[in-house]
Design a protein that fits this description.
The chain has helices spanning 70-76, 102-119, 133-144, 164-170, 176-180, 190-194, 203-207, 212-219, 242-251, 276-293; strands at 20-26, 29-36, 46-50, 80-84, 126-131, 150-154, 227-232, 258-263, 308-311. With 314 residues, the protein is an alpha/beta fold. The protein has one domain: Rossmann fold. Helix 2 crosses helix 3.
Amino acid sequence: MSVSRPDRTAPPPTHSAGVRPLLLDAAGLTLSGLLATPPDRPPRATVVAVHGGGMRAGYFDGQAHADLSLLTLGARLGFTVLALDRPGYGHSAAQAPAGLTLDEQCTVLSQALDTFAQQHPVGRGFLLLAHSYGGKLALTAAAHTPGLLALDASGVGHRYGLGPADHRRLRRHLEWERNWGPLGLYPSGTFRAAEALVAPIPAREAAEVALWPQMFDALAPRIAIPLRLTFAEHEAWWLHQEPDIADLTSRLSTAPVVRIERQPGSGHNISLSRAARSYHLRALAFFEECLQSAGDGPAGPPARSRNTTSTAAH
């Protein structure tokens, strides 16, 4: 989420070694993004990283410390990692200055994945890893896009932890404290580096924020892929106590696996925090399990599970 409000079309920040920028045409838009591929082998699968509101694809390639980058870690572990600027951000901001609704973004994302698969090896297929508003898009895609393998999302739930007065601020500008939490959770230089990543939230996207609880309730029964949701220790946007989690998971009635986890030592922006590597490793391990359950790997398919909640030790 935002630190300041530079132009959404500003040049992207410096990226990590082995990460390269790309452009991808889809549904009449040209999306920008970042790509990392395994250096010495075909990919086992492709992780598609979807950023939150007020950020860009570089959220998944944090520059404050070498351990932050999901792109370089995923590529080293045999995955292609594709981080896209969502419609209305990056290159497409000039084409869609007001942004798109979640349903419209879902259509663009689906076509972007088809285009990418025509141009690049994707291995077993696509795994979605998303954050915050990008988690809303990923959940929407999981409900409407056939063929996705699994979804891992952080910083997204189904009920906001906000009072009535806070909802007015949702429509204007998201609070800095809710987005970041304690400053000590982030490596030195994080906020200076993040200035190159942040962007205004497009108007049509912002207009849907308060509608998410009802949208989730309609989407949840249609999600039929393995799902993992992570809440940061200092997550302040969402209700995530045990009764809230029980209500959330009860609505995901079709997903074969629903796993809820807590990430200690982190605020809402987990992938820019000191806990980024731990979170990314857990997410990639979940994807490994999903590939094995689909028959890829030495182990046989594990038993199906429902509503599994695990909490990392502090």
